[in-house]
Amino acid sequence: MNVLIFNGALEKRNTGTSKTISNYFHNRLTDAGAVVTKFNLADAGIPFFDLSLVNIPQSVKIMTGIFTEADAHIWLTPLYHGGMTGIMKNCLDWLEISSKANPPYLTNKTVGLVCWASGGHAMQGINAMDAVAKSLRAWTLPYTIPVVRNDLFHTDGNLHPLYKEKFNLMSRLLLESSHSISARP
């Protein structure tokens, strides 16, 4: 199975929240036999969404190929003012260029959703991502992970065992998802 880890944060620090979570999922999924691609928006060079452009930017073509070729996705974002990051939404909007493909958009992909916030409102970001994923014809796992950022790390600086357990469960559910494996058109 090919799995995409979509990091919707602009954070570039290797020890930052988004990279720590992304790396954990990468290691877990790779150990389970998946082929994993990490797509970090901070490094992607995706321009503002503009379908009036005569030529679609190369970075968008590459991104669309990565997203549509993956069997399953995990989307990660910090909560920004009640939703996912604007740059993440902008990137997902570019999937409109796949509307005429067969199948279009992210049809029958399974998407796991993770959002973190300093308080307890990370579910708002998950709801925003869920709406977009379903609009793109993807299936979302019924198990999502809203993270309270202040509880994510154990006192030793590593991921808290509770969150490791949650990330492990999401990884397992994603790999077992029949939509990701057998529901291709």
UniProtKB/TrEMBL annotation:
SUPFAM superfamilies: Flavoproteins
Pfam families membership: FMN_red
GO molecular function, one term: oxidoreductase activity
Enzyme Commission code(s) on record: 1.-.-.-
Name under which the protein is recorded: NADPH-dependent FMN reductase
Residues in NADPH-dependent FMN reductase-like domain copies: 1-143
Keyword Membrane: no
Protein species of origin: Olivibacter jilunii
The keyword Oxidoreductase is assigned to this record: yes
Keywords: Oxidoreductase
InterPro entries tied to this protein: Flavoprotein-like_sf (IPR029039), FMN_Rdtase-like_dom (IPR005025)
Enzyme type, top EC level: oxidoreductase
Signal peptide: none
